[in-house]
Amino acid sequence: MNYRNLAHTGVQVSQYALGGGMFGSLTTKEDSIQMIHEAINAGINLIDTSSRYADGESEQIIGQAIKGRRDDVILATKFGAEPNNKLNQNGSSRRWVRQVVEKSLKRLQTDYIDLYQLHHPFSDTSFQETLGVLTDLVQEGKVRYIGTSNHQAWQIIEAQAVSERHHLQRFVSEQSPYSLINRSIEQDITEVARRYDLAILTYGPLAGGLLTGKYTAGHAADSHSRAVFLKGAVGLTLNPELPENKHKFDIILQLQQVADQAGITLAHMAVAFIQNHPAITSTILGPRTPEQLRQYIAGVDLRLSSDLLDIIDTIVPPGKRIDDKEQTWTPEWLDSSRRKRTNEIL
């Protein structure tokens, strides 16, 4: 396992991070704890979760699993996207952040969070408001560092400017989706990270399982796959039977053939591809079973040649996302109410 600097903090994190998105939902508590222990024993020191995952149960499981090993773990969690519709009980206001951080600390059974991340942007709350309360939490010792997730490049830059202007803590990391079939962060976020000395934590390296090689266009997904478990828009992006997904699966087949010719699995090639980019600090793995975690770890030393990377570029060009439905968060300014003029005299 290699370790890389978390931006300018002096903290080093493992090239792989363990994501807790499945803990308490698609993965049992027992299997989740087993994976956490196996990951730590394999050298993974960064564990990432969210107050949203399994309505907080993911944090509870992680807190229980790392008892006695807290100093071995760089603990990251996210806030702001809590799954409820109650007034003033989500988002990034000073009022709510003060409440939700205490809940996370209690569930995680810890006095501090190493990396506290804003789960996605909120246009109704200023960065000055959010950074103000996060600065207080850092000064109080409840949070060590702060980061963002699912932010666009211009938002990252705006936040950095607000920090400098008002002498507030600055975000040191951004968490974004990145895979062989979703290279959109290469358009601007990777360069913004280089210019502002930000760590990039990526998630979705296997695109929800699409890059495991187990899906074939026109054929039903296995009954135990995420394409069956997951519903809504996410499930639709994984469904190999839908005609609109044929183009995506044709591209995945080309990538599979490249991996076969190189004598490696598609999954290992997909993760190694992400690790090759110099802007990437750590890749968050989201295994559903202990066996999936072991398969990830088995490819930790794989390095891709320049020739192979060039071939991948011809199949999925740099900066390209081949399926817009895979965008994990849709900006509110794309809502119909923000795109249409109303009550105008023509």
UniProtKB/TrEMBL annotation:
Q: Which InterPro entries would you find in this protein's record?
A: AKR, AKR_Detox_Biosynth, NAD(P)_OxRdtase_dom_sf, NADP_OxRdtase_dom
Q: Which domain of life is it from?
A: Bacteria
Q: List the signal peptide residues.
A: none
Task: Pinpoint the NADP-dependent oxidoreductase domain residues.
Answer: 18-315
What GO molecular function annotations does the UniProt record carry, in alphabetical order? oxidoreductase activity
One GO CC annotation: cytosol
Protein name as annotated: Predicted oxidoreductase
Q: Which sequence ranges form a coiled-coil region, renumbered to this chain?
A: none
Keyword list, A-Z? Oxidoreductase
Q: Which PANTHER family match?
A: NAD(P)-LINKED OXIDOREDUCTASE SUPERFAMILY PROTEIN, NADH-SPECIFIC METHYLGLYOXAL REDUCTASE-RELATED
